[in-house]
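hey so i finally got around to running the thing on that chain from the lab meeting. sorry it took forever, my laptop kept dying and i had to restart like 3 times. anyway pasting the input first so we r on the same page abt which one it is
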Amino acid sequence: MRITMIICLAFALGLGPAGGADAAGEFAVVTTTDFSTGSASVIDLATRAVDVNVASVHSDAVARYYGGLVYVVNRTPADNIQILDPQNGFAIVRQFSTGNGSNPHDIVVVSPTVAYVTRYDSAVLWKMNPTTGTMTGSINLASLADADGIPEMDQMSRIGNRLFVGVQRLDRANFYQPTGASYLAVIDITTDTLLDTDPGTSGTQPITLPAPNPFSEVWLDLYSGALTVACVGFFGLQDGGLARVDPYALAPAGIGFSETAAGGDVLDAVIVSPTLGFAIVVTPSFVTHLVIFDPQTGVKLATVYAPSDYVLNDVELAPTGEVYLADRTPTNPGVRVYDGATATLVAGPIDVGLPPFDICMSVPVQTAVTDAPPRAAAALGPNYPNPFNPATTIPFTLPAPGRARLAVYEVTGRRVRVLLDSPLDAGDHEARWDGRDDAGRSVASGVYVIRLEAGGAVQSQTAVLLK
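ok and heres what got predicted. didnt touch it at all, straight out
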């Protein structure tokens, strides 16, 4: 995601009825492509109903969500941003250029009138006004480039007034191979200047990543509190993994899941609990697998899905606690949906028209952050037993005294039970759910979402009731 730490785990309620994907509820926007044409389709997270081809997009495009609108980043040679309105059938609100030959790779929208766009084929990051489509400022990253003069600025994450920008530093004359260290550049968006992360060294220093070639989205792991990005290093060499960075100390924090442990290059990952993560891994035979791992130990737990080609492109965590996977298998492409607690397939592949390329949630769980939080965030531990019958215990920790609200929801978003909503002291706490709703009625077997709100942060995980 991701800070008064909205981290966009906003788990908004009020999902729409069955039928087409309802813009009033939570949804996933899926950019699709056959690499000659592109489209966008929408999956309703409550019903998994699909609206196929709601908009035409470039054949190399990713989507982001902010303030009720979808921002499509159309990469080279389209070189533009396309804004779609879910409340108006995903009609195009506005489309504007990021500069010819710029190859935009990501957008972070700060407000309706302020956004930042990485331009992969340029050394200059643009500040733009999405309402007018005009460039209003720029930040030159040429000082971070390798010898070819282009830093390869890729994907970003915002924490408060700081913008973290992945800088790959690839040699364009040598098949885009890494050239030594890669960085997270840190930009102060109040002044639009690079921050110096190491005042003891001359010059303005970025954060040096613990592995080269940051490849995935940059997102905040709610459990470790670290900014996380998959660094592939050299493809085919086990020299990377999930790199962690302390966003407050502005320092590298090691590798959370190494490519040695993964058995190949880690392309993308999500972390669904303190002890469970999902990752797309490219094996030495250049085949993509979906694996699960323990983020605390860095140990690979199992291979969940093993197609026979390089076909897995994006993995995202939904606010329902489910994991969505873009599967481009030629014979049966679509979006596969996995239970975030058990890693079992619960739906799919869901046909989204062309093969899926990128998945964007209308309630981003791990990417977007706003104002700076305390260094330590409230932590929701795994409930036990899980699956359970008739009751389960839910541990959680508060870093400071304050109000905490713990509630249980159906995966559709309907609230089932408020377990507590009261001021608590700092420290470790536990709550118990006996499988009943607010009216004292026993609920049915199924998957439920446990949600903790404390200290400005929101965390959720799934629990399975088996009767």
